[in-house]
Amino acid sequence: MKWAVRNDTLAGQVSDDELTGTSSDLQKTLTKFWEVEEVSVSKALSKEEIDCANIFVRTTRRNSEGRFIVTLPLKQDESTLGKSREQVEKRFYSTERRLSKNNKLRDYYVYFMPEYEELNHMSKTESCDNSHIEYFMSHHGVLREPSLTTKLRIVFDASCQQQLVTG
User: Fold this and answer.
1) pLDDT along the chain (167 residues), means of 10
2) Is 136 among the domain residues?
């Protein structure tokens, strides 16, 4: 069986051979269409993905300001985070040296810190004790002069290698 598509506006531009096809061509096209449109079956979740979803459901809440408060899903016990303070202090002093050499970067940093504090993206730690586990995350700034909106982008390094706590 053959089918044909005709359009008077194409008359004289396309030959009859280009407008005809076989039913097998149509069948292939329709089959491909339904394969693309088919709803995929979701794969089974891994144990790690299930654990993560359970932590999210069990601990996620909203505070009085409507912000979401979430617990970070850790793959291991939080004691494996290690001692981050010493490494972060070294990076802090390195950042201070860098800021002392670049006034423009320092000015953007001075502007950024109170803004992050006001947005509750960070908070000042008054004192540290060893009664509970604390994790400090180092950060540094990347200056992007050509940017119209954000000249300083802050990069947080949560994967920084830490000294592990030993018993």
Assistant:
1) 50 52 74 76 86 90 88 77 82 92 90 87 73 78 85 83 55
2) yes
In sequence order, what are the beta bridge partners of 140? 155
Cα separation, 4 vs 17, in Å, equals 9
Name the amino acid, one letter, at 21.
G
**C-alpha to C-alpha distance for 162 and 88, rounded to whole angstroms:** 9
18: Cα within 13 Å, side-chain hemisphere: 7
- Report angle CA 49, 55, 57 to the nearest 5 degrees: 100
Q: Which amino acid is located at 13 in the chain?
A: Q
- List residues bridging with 58 in a β-sheet: none
Asked if 87 and 137 sit in the same domain, the reply is yes
Residue with token string 């654990």? 51
In a domain, 154, yes or no: yes
In a domain, 27, yes or no: yes
CA atoms lying within 13 Å on the CB side of residue 120: 6
Write down the H helix ranges in 40-84. Answer: 47-59
Whole-number Cα distances in Å, 154 to 74, 75, 139, 151, 166? 23, 26, 7, 10, 32
Cα separation, 102 vs 6, in Å, equals 70
Domain that holds residue 12: 2-37
